[in-house]
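Hi team,

Below is the intake form for Tyrosine decarboxylase from Aphis gossypii. Please confirm the fields before the structure is written into the shared record.

FORM ID: S-0412
PROTEIN: Tyrosine decarboxylase
ORGANISM: Aphis gossypii
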Amino acid sequence: MDTEQFRKHGKEMVDYICEYLETIKQRRVTPTVNPGWLKNQIPLEAPVHPEAFDAIMKDVENIIMPGVTHWQHPRFHAYFPSGNSFPSILADMLSDAIACIGFSWAASPSCTELETIVLDWLGKAIGLPEEFLTFSEEASKTISSARQGDSETEIHNGKGGGVLQGSASECIFVCMLAARAQAIKRLRKLHPFIEEGVLLSKLMAYCSKESHSCVEKGAMMAFVKLRILEPDENNSLRGATLRQVMEQDEAMGLIPFFVSTTLGTTSCCSFDNIPEIGLVCQQFETVWLHVDAAYAGSAFICPEFRSLMNGIQYADSFNLNTNKWLLTNFDCSCLWVKDRFKLTCALVVDPLYLQHGYAGAVDYRHWGIPLSRRFRSLKLWFVLRTYGISGLQKYIRHHCQLAKRFERLVKSDNKFEVLNDVKMGLVCFRLKDDPTNKLNKKLLETINESGKLHMVPSLVHDKYVIRFCVVAEHATEDDIDYAWKIIKETAVTVVYNEQELTEKREEQVDEVFELSERKKKDDLAYRRSFFVRMVSDPKIYNPIIARSSPGSRRHTHLSSMDDDIHDPLSIATSDTEDTMTQPASSWISWPLAFLFQGVFDDKEGNDVPVRLVI
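The structure came back. Fields below:
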């Protein structure tokens, strides 16, 4: 593809993207395909000869799109938002065109320095303490003076700073590695003759049950122990809980070294008590306190939400995802640390071919796991400049207002309940009176299968809930009202069907019980009738008499009896006349057992009257 072809197809692609986003409401939210479906649509080997771009785009619409879950759909309410905006898309186009690999300052000075400045911008906008910034207020004044005088001025940086990572998982993991390195460094000074592996086995990290699963995965990869703690009734981790277990662990010879807290948990958007936890961490020399605000952190750009991060001054690191709730496309996770040297000393590998002669310059390859880094700061810079702080605040507040609207709709119906404290854009709700969660699971399954909405479940206070998150950038009140309409209508159908099914089951149980009772009565009535006939006609129960009588019919219940039965009271000789002279009382010796077989053993009793006549 040459320049002219790119120009032509580039315009076509922009048109396609605009058309896709403008008409996305007409598409089904989730696909209806099964795993492995695409291998039947696309050849399993790459084409040998070039193909036309128009043919590729045709396959995008006909083959790829049917298998896409549309995260930008106004009916998508499953997870936290996937940031997206036109300025961010355009910036990614430019970043891909520049195609620099910014692992060091020398590899691309603008790529490095824009990242530093933009993260200071955002850190100030959300109210982070100055210790987390690269440039202090004094440095900012120095920069202004240098601009005015147009002269080279030495700028003194602080110890803190920010860096862009691929995800919140990476942010937490690199902070855990930095905390581990600091703890081992201190312990080796105290215990120089103990092997590092032994010291590592003593390290203990902590998080809440509500923390993201990436904390547990990070502990696995860092080869450290992790203790998962119970939050309080508001799903908030408290200082007293943390202090108790840390003291217990220390008494057992373990070494607390890392605490991961959350502002805006995934399950219900709850907030750990950072002021209490921070004071506890201050009592332990080796503990690194991390605050994960992947979703809720973006809301701190609004002053009214900043009280939720009280205690942030105690933290050693803090992260948020602009690619969640700040209109910036994935991947663009922001991490700030108070002391960047503690972070980089755990991750520095410096071969000759990566070194350069610019002393003091920031090399972001030392701030994370990968060496190669894209020009990600461009899209955050574009978004911050295009929307401005005021535009982003308006967007966040609008989402929070829509979530409150949905909360009011749920609470207006006494069949439903809300189980979380709705502070941001997430509402956790469920049908009441469903101890087995069967109705709520069926409700969510039916809605998702319809393709009209998409939501996911979670657990709040060990109860199954449905998560409803406001996601789309241009979501409206009509979108919220439509979602509630679908939920209510589906709930009515699910509850009615379940009631109908329950009634059918009860009817079937009743029918089985009636048949069982009828059989018992019929069996007993038959036995009573047999006894009455037995007294008047010995042939009914005596096989020898029945056999000796011409044309007589042996009773089916006794057909299995043979001639060799020798009862002490039965016939002693083979002579018929002698047989008939035997006492009649001998005839009823075993039929009585037949009559009462199971009657006196019947634990439930029987209401068929029995009268014994001898």
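SUMMARY LINE: Confidence is low (pLDDT under 50) at residues 551-595, 599-614.

Thanks, M.
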